[in-house]
Structure prediction request, 262 residues.
Amino acid sequence: MPLLSKYTMKLADSPFWTFAIHDGQHIDPRVLPYQLLKEEDRMREEDPFTALIAELPCNRFIMETSRFQLDINRGIEDAIYLRPDQAWGLDVWRKDVPEELVNQLRLDHEAIYAIIESNIQQTISKYGYFVILDIHSYNARREGPEQEINTETDPQINIGTLHLNAKWHPLLERLMYELGKEKVNGEPLDIRENIKFKGGYLSKVINQLFGEYGAVFAIEFRKDFMDEWTGIPVPHHVEAYKQLMMKALTILNQYFYYDGKE
Prediction:
């Protein structure tokens, strides 16, 4: 049976990947009748424009399907938000959602992970290593659009590394040091580790399976590049974060190609 969930994968001659697995907003027509949320309510917890930030000269994996249909950054039992406690207290699904639909989405989850794992293995076979920049975003104005951002608890960029193999800690330190010297829109960059998020299921699975050969860095951008309540982007800020990820690719290239760290 064809997948209910959609993704785009673009391969390049590169050991590096960008992922944007929460960018998608699509709900399959077979699923939509069983969804309770309006599109604008879903958007608040999705990661719009992260696919644009991830549009770099390397391999790319972009989920087109909304996390409210299937969240591949959760384990299979939590990947479908059947209970409010799985979805920020939101009622996502009607009570009469067919069991066969839920089962098909879980098969999607398994199939998508098989595809991802196969492609990472191919990258390892070709280059001997890999790195995934797993790009996300997060809300910092949950109380309302006029809320002041708490810069003590909400860094501009949070890198989740809970599942990282210790072998890659020097690379992490290099990334954070070099990116931390950059400015965004003329302002110093606040980049910290494991403050808001520590890395989700994708990071856990790939780091555990292939951690001897490479790393997943879960990169969470605070939604400064958009209005999180209206969904309207700030184009120059989106571009600034994209250029920051271009800088990250440069750092990765230097680390592996020039420092003899392979």
Q: What stands out?
A: Residues 7-258 form a domain with the Aminopeptidase fold (CATH 3.40.630.40). The first helix runs from residue 39 to 45. The two ends are 41 Å apart (CA to CA).
